[in-house]
Amino acid sequence: MTNFLSMTDEQLVRAYADGQNEAFDFLLKRHKDRIFNYILRIIKNEDIANDIFQETFVKAIMTIKQGRYTENGKFPAWITRIAHNLIIDFYRQEKSENMQSTDLDDVDILNRKELCDDTIEDVIISQQIREDVKFLIEELPPLQREVLIMRYYQNLSFKEIAEITGVSINTALGRMRYAILNLRRLASEKDIILTL
């Protein structure tokens, strides 16, 4: 019987690649605690960490069996890199799904401002902002005011604005650009804050 216990990681990998399946059991026993703790420290969820841990060693098995493992005397670094890449994949997938687990005690996914009714303060501030915007629009030159009102309050396209006002689309766009720049300047000069 082969003495797997005294073998180096590289010897165990070679033995496993040559068909001695028990060699991988020794590799697993040797590195499982360190790899699992590494994953858990980053993920902070035992169930997900277990899934990534299992996937890490399945990926290692596949790579070795397919003869794609390159021997460089650094099996621990290699297996950690696989785990690291799977953790990154997990976070990318979670981000793309835009989901959070409700199993996490410290996260309440329903406690978000956009899901709540406005407070009386929010209503008052929003009303004040609307009044400030109307005041600033009245301060604009007439041609800029006209384009801004048509675009934002009447939802007309720049093509429609150009036709109604008898100017080119570029002129309508230019007036809008100057209207916005002037609104910003006026708000700054008059110390008017237009955000909640």
Instruction: Tell me the total number of β-strands.
Output: 0
First-last Cα distance: 74 Å
> Assembly type of the shown chains?
single chain
- The sequence of SSEs as H and E is HHHHHHHH
- Unreliable stretches covering 5 or more consecutive residues: none
The helix/strand class is: mainly alpha
Return the CATH class of the largest domain. Answer: Mainly Alpha
Provide the gyration radius in Å.
32 Å
Report the sheet-strand fraction: under 5%
Query: What count of domains describes the coordinates?
Result: 2
CATH superfamily grouping of the largest domain: RNA polymerase sigma factor, region 2, helix turn helix motif
Mean pLDDT over all positions: 84
Overall body shape: elongated
How is the biggest beta sheet arranged?
none
SS element count, helices: 8
Per CATH, which architecture of the largest domain? Answer: Orthogonal Bundle
Binned, the helix content reads 55-70%
CATH topology of the largest domain: Rna Polymerase Sigma Factor, Chain: A
